[in-house]
Amino acid sequence: MMLLFRLNGQSVEVETAPDRRAVDLLRDLGAPHPDVKDVKEGCGTGECGACSVLVDGVHRLSCLMLAAQLAGREVVTASGLGSEAAPHAIQRAFADHGAVQCGFCTPGMAVAAAALLQDNMAPGREDIRRAISGNLCRCTGYVMIVDAIEAAAGKMRSDPSALHEERVASRKAAKSSRKATMPSRKKAGKS
User: Fold this and answer.
1) What total of structural domains would you count in the chain?
2) Predicted TM-score (pTM) of this structure
C-alpha cells in the first residue's frame, strides 16, 4: 500500500505492507525522510516504551501499531520535539538534570513526558511517575528523570505563550496533514 503521513513536520510517502509494524517502518525509512533512529525497539511487546511516538499528539507505542495506522496522521518522535538550535523544554531539562545515562530509553521517556505536559503543565511527582510508568530505564533509577520532567514543566509554565504557539502549530500541521493525505469522500466514492 502507498502510505502517506507526516513525520516530524515532513511529508512522507512510502510503499509498504499494511501489516508491517510502525516501529520497523519508521526505523527503516532512510533518505530522503527524516532520520528516526531515535524510535527504539526494546521489547517488541509494548512493555518498555522505547518505541514511543506521538500520533496526532497522543502517546503511542509504535511496536504495537501497524504501518497502516499511520495513514494521514501526524507522527512526532523525540527528535521532532525540538531541534539542536531550539530544543524542547523536555530535551533541555533531560540534559541539564543528568536524566540520560546510556540513552536507550531517553527518546521514549522524552515523548512520554511531552505527552504528559501537553495535558498537564503542573504535574506532581506522582503524576510524572504514572506518565512514565510504561517506560523502562535500567540506568538512572528514575529520580533524575522525574526531576527533569518537573523542571521542564516549570519552564513551560513560565512561558505559556510559547507553549500555546507550539500546540496551535502542531494541531494545524496534523489537520492539514490529514486533509492532504486522505482522499475526500466525494473523490473516494467515484470510480
Assistant:
1) 1
2) 0.83
